[in-house]
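Anyone up for a design puzzle?
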């Protein structure tokens, strides 16, 4: 049988990895797919460099539309990234009757509903295993392996850059800025790391997982997104003393009121497996009603780990290329006419527990005022840790004495976020609270 023909848009880190792995393992892949899979055409602005990477047998052009227009191309791989030209090219490929494989989580999180509708109308597939957690097959697990389950919640470390930074802060006692600089030096963080450290990248991925888990449209604009830039080394240390570790998690949960979709730092019990995922590794925990808790762990980025996911999509499409479109696994796991209208909850309606750190004047009655505000708000306290005043630096930068200070750390039981916001506002207004209050949400993941 004639090999399936693939056109590649963009041959950067992931594109070159895809070409190399496909070439290296072509016989094994052919045995699994039932026919050969060949990248026969590549579009890249740097034609000379691309030609050098793929050799003389592959046609290289600088115009992506030439790939889409080629009638011999069956599948288009989009590895350009971003929301702009990538969206245009993906929709044009679909309109031309091409199947699409993409690693573009930003594109799918923002425009996925439009793209999947266009693909369904045209009877072609859009595959995106590489868009979430790199080489971890979490999309296939959610779409197929766990299809018998009512998914209850998902929590994932789905950004390797932030996990590396938090690991360095914990292991070496570094402040955020120092750990970020180290991540940039080692190549884990970009020169402009905003998407990573502000949680946007993780939110794109959480949005896609949420849609698949609960059969709702992709709704990135409704996700709550908070990064790690405000975390200090002190919080990492205090969490450790209390038996927790801090991780940036993408969380989505089914509740009676709707769907939670949020990304933010979390305290996780140190005994949980996901709390011990270190460095740039990724991990996703899924709770299903039938299977219970499952954990998926591996590399979340990199040339060949991501290529592994891209090629898995190529194999899936090759197997189903001639199948009736109605019999294929739906893009978001649920049939398009059976999607749910469950609302994504605003963050103020989310219920969770909290870690609070207050830098306060070391005076009699301060703790009583703080706990009184929480009690009046109906917020129950789980634990309190107070750091002695003599452990705190008691001189200003100019060498002048300052008011003796202490850190008060409070763990709470579950409460509604809006209630906690109001209580924090009251506590912050106390004259004895000397700095902005640090609030980190706590997830037991039991």
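Challenge accepted. My sequence:
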């Amino acid at each position: 049988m004639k090999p399936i023909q693939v056109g590649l848009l963009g041959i950067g880190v992931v594109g070159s990895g895809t070409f190399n792995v496909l070439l290296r393992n072509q016989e094994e892949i052919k045995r699994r797919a039932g026919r050969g899979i060949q990248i026969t055409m590549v579009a890249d602005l740097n034609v000379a460099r691309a030609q050098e990477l793929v050799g003389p047998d592959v046609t290289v052009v600088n115009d992506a539309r030439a790939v889409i227009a080629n009638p011999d191309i069956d599948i288009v791989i989009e590895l350009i990234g971003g929301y702009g030209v990538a969206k245009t090219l993906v929709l044009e490929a679909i309109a031309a009757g091409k199947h699409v494989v993409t690693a573009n989580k930003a594109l799918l999180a923002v425009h996925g509903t439009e793209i999947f509708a266009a693909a369904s109308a045209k009877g072609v597939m859009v595959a995106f295993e590489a868009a979430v957690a790199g080489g971890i097959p979490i999309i296939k697990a959610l779409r197929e392996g766990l299809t018998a389950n009512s998914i209850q919640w998902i929590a994932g470390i789905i950004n390797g850059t932030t996990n590396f930074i938090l690991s360095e802060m914990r292991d070496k006692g570094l402040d955020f800025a120092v750990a970020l600089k180290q991540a940039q030096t080692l190549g884990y963080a970009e020169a402009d790391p905003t998407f990573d450290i502000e949680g946007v990248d993780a939110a794109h991925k959480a949005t896609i997982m949420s849609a698949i888990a609960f059969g709702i449209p992709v709704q990135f604009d409704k996700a709550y997104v908070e990064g790690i830039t405000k975390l200090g080394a002190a919080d990492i240390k205090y969490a450790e003393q209390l038996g927790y570790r801090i991780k940036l998690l993408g969380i989505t949960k089914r509740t009676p009121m709707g769907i939670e979709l949020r990304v933010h730092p979390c305290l996780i019990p140190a005994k949980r497996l996901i709390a011990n995922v270190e460095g740039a590794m990724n991990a996703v925990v899924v709770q299903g009603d039938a299977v219970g808790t499952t954990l998926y762990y591996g590399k979340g980025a990199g040339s060949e780990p991501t290529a592994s996911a891209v090629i898995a999509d190529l194999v899936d499409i090759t197997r189903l290329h001639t199948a009736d479109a109605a019999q294929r696994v739906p893009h978001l796991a649920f049939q398009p006419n059976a999607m749910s209208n469950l609302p994504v909850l605003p963050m103020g309606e989310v219920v969770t527990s909290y870690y609070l750190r207050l830098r306060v004047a070391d005076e009699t009655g301060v703790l009583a005022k703080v706990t009184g505000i929480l009690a009046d708000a109906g917020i129950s306290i789980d634990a309190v840790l107070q750091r002695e005043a003599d452990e705190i630096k008691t001189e200003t930068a100019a060498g002048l004495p300052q008011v003796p200070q202490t850190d008060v750390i409070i763990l709470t039981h579950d409460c509604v976020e809006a209630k906690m916001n109001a209580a924090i506002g009251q506590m912050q207004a106390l004259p004895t609270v000397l700095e902005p209050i640090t609030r980190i949400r706590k997830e037991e993941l039991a």
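A detail worth pointing out: The first helix runs from residue 13 to 24.
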